């Protein structure tokens, strides 16, 4: 089984997380049919291509929420979401809390050690 096309697709998707990736587009780039690509991707990675990309985007989002002051709408667009509601729904489903709550908790966790050492 030749998985080079799948490896290449992962690299391309990583370089452009804002692109609206579909299974058809990824399969086409790999030169495979949609069904063959989906099956081989799942066998190699352990989850569907779209689930993998969504999880990866949420990891990027969590990093940006924790380390920047970027507005949610900007983060959402930078990761391929056309609106903040869709981003909020996906983030909450995968991360277990809203993006705003995650950002606040992340910033509080960073601030706590400084507060403790200053006292």
Counting structural domains, the number is 2
Let me know the CATH homologous superfamily of the largest domain. Homeodomain-like
Continuous helix count:
7
Q: Tell me the helix content.
A: over 70%
What is the residue-mean pLDDT, rounded to a whole number?
Answer: 86
Gross geometry: elongated
Beta fraction: under 5%
* CATH domain topology of the largest domain: Arc Repressor Mutant, subunit A
Distance between the termini: 60 Å
Structural class: mainly alpha
CATH class of the largest domain: Mainly Alpha
Architecture of the largest domain, according to CATH?
Answer: Orthogonal Bundle
Low-confidence stretches: none
Order of helices and strands: HHHHHHH
Question: What would you report as the Rg, rounded to the nearest angstrom?
Answer: 17 Å
User: Tell me about the biggest sheet?
Assistant: none
Number of strands: 0
Chart the SSEs and their pairings:
Elements: H1 4-15, H2 23-30, H3 34-45, H4 49-67, H5 72-78, H6 84-95, H7 99-118
Helix pairs in contact: 1-2, 2-3, 4-6, 4-7, 5-6
Features:
single chain, 119 residues, mainly alpha, Arc Repressor Mutant, subunit A, 7 helices
Your description of this structure?
The protein contains seven helices and no strands. It has 119 residues and is mostly helical. The chain folds into two domains: 46 residues, Arc Repressor Mutant, subunit A (Orthogonal Bundle); 69 residues, Orthogonal Bundle (Arc Repressor Mutant, subunit A), CATH 1.10.10.60. The longest helix has 20 residues.
């Amino acid at each position: 089984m030749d998985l080079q096309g799948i490896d290449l697709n992962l690299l391309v998707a990583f370089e452009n997380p804002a692109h609206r990736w579909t299974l058809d587009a990824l399969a086409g780039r790999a030169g495979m049919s949609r069904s063959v690509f989906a099956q081989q991707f799942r066998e190699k990675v352990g989850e569907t291509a779209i689930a993998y990309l969504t999880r990866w985007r949420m990891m990027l989002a969590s990093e940006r929420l924790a380390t920047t002051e970027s507005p949610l709408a900007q983060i959402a667009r930078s990761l391929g979401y056309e609106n903040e509601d869709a981003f909020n729904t996906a983030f909450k489903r995968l991360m277990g809390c809203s993006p705003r709550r995650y950002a606040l908790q992340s910033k509080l966790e960073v601030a706590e050690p400084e507060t403790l050492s200053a006292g």
